[in-house]
Structures are given as structure tokens and as C-alpha cells.
Amino acid sequence: MSEEVNIEKQRQRAPSKRAIQSRDRILDAAERVFAQKGFDGATIRDIAAAANTQVGLVHHHGGGKAELFARTVQRRAAELSALRLEMLNRRKATGPVILRDVLECFFGPYLDRAAAGGPQWLAYARLVALVSSDLRWRPIAAEVFDPTANRFIDEIGALFPNAPRAAIAAGFVYSVSAMLAQVTSTWRIQALGETDIRPDIQLDALVTFCAAGLTASLTS
């Protein structure tokens, strides 16, 4: 068997369990470091130290810093999109939906992960906020966020057929910002409210707030 064939077989071979674990550890570390320092403040060396690995291995699994940032954002976006769309399709299969249903299907999967998935999901919320607030990450947002966002905007549009799409999009973005604030600032809400907040109450309060704002803005 020629050397070229051997090389091609090695390329096609599935990554080992150890390689997958190493990659996930690096992406977790990148998530934390980017969330803490931002894209400009973070370095590959910082990420390698947080992952307790070599700089070369970070480059191997993530590429350059911009590529690693994109991969880090994309990883959880794909999981969330699948969960949101599955929940929306199940809800629609039971009959007509209202605005609260649509918002619950978008917010619910993230709040569930944030409540049960540990600090990595909190870090991810900060990454989403970074991407949403910086125009240079528009290509990432267009690739990993926009297809699902447009599906939910379409669902809201069907409920408010006379509303301009621009107004629906604005209300949707405001609602996403409220969701991110809910995840990253729960401690602040609890401190000011002098009480703990259960995840189910968080979701209900968020949906009530955003549904009222959307309804008011799209029917005025």
C-alpha cells in the first residue's frame, strides 16, 4: 500500500476519544477566557493555560484566534438551534400557537441549559452578547444565529401580519437581550429582590415581559 493511501486513510479516520476530550477541553477554556477578557484581550497562550495544554495543541484543534472564537460560538449555537426548533415544531403540532408559545420555545432551552449546565453556559451567554454587539462578528451571527432567529421572527410575523418585519426584528433582538440579561444577571435580580428565583419562575417572568413589549410595539 502506497504512502499516499496510508496518509489518506489517516485523514479519514474518526478522531479518538482522547482527541475529542482534548478538543472539548480547549473549547471550554476558550469559552471562559473569551467571556472574561473579550476577543481582543484574550490570547492563545491564555487559552492554553486555562485548558492546561500546549499552545500548539490549541492551534491544532482551533486554528488561529479568530477561527477558535468562531468555533467556540458555533458549538453551542448548533445545539440550541436544534432544541429550539424541535420544541417549536412539537408545540405547533398540538394546535395554533400564541406569542407566549413562540417565546417559550426560544427562551426555554437556553434557560434550561443555563440552570443545569454549569458556568460554561453563563460564559456562553457573554459570548453571544459580544457577538451581538460587535459588527465585525456579523458573519458569525449570520451563519450560526440568523437561520433560527429568522424562523422565530417569521412565527411572530404570522401572529402580527400587519406589523413591519423591521419592527418584529427589533422586538426580537430586544427580547434576546432580555434573555441574556436574565442569565447573566440573575444574581443581581435576586439581590435587589431579596429572594431566590426558581428557573420556571425566571422563564415565566421573561416571557411575560417580552410578550407584553412585543405586543405593545407591534400593535401600536
From TrEMBL:
Annotated ranges, domain HTH tetR-type: 20-80
Gene3D superfamilies, alphabetized: Tetracycline Repressor, domain 2
Gene Ontology terms, MF aspect: DNA-binding transcription factor activity; transcription cis-regulatory region binding
Alphabetical keyword list: DNA-binding, Transcription, Transcription regulation
DNA-binding region: 43-62
Pfam family, one: TetR_C_30
InterPro entries noted in UniProt: Homeodomain-like_sf, HTH-type_TetR-like_transc_reg, HTH_TetR, PsrA_TetR_C, Tet_transcr_reg_TetR-rel_C_sf
Protein name stated in the entry: Transcriptional regulator, TetR family
